[in-house]
Amino acid sequence: MQIPIPGREDLQINHLVLDFNGTIALDGLLLPNVMERLMELAKLVKIYVLTADSNGSANRECEGLPVELIVIGKEDQREEKSRFVRKFASGVAVLGNGINDELMFRQADLSIAVIGKEGCATATLIASHIVVNEVVDGLDLLLMHHRLIPTLRN
Question: Is 16:108 a contact under the CB 8 Å cutoff?
């Protein structure tokens, strides 16, 4: 997906990395309207869901979704998520809300902080390019990327 942004280089997004709990799920359950958006986005980019699976429900909730689910360890999650994003040279968009998302936000070409019901860690918020209230708004920015232009143009 190529996104032209006036006054700066075009964004080329090939990979979408999503946090699970607090971002696309609440209390271990996928949020409403997320599935439909992921189905559409999967036609444009490869989607990964990174999670420590604190509620033990990520596998069940992501079943049938066009995503690659990656369960990370309970320790050193910040570095593990950052390392995952770094393995792609470029072309990565990320969505998240937790302190463990901050470093991957700094590695990504486009980082979208989600406030949601859990709130958003200040460090992650500061590392983001864009902040949205709800995850569907962030996913819609990628689906209707003309909405990114007013926020990101120079």
Answer: no
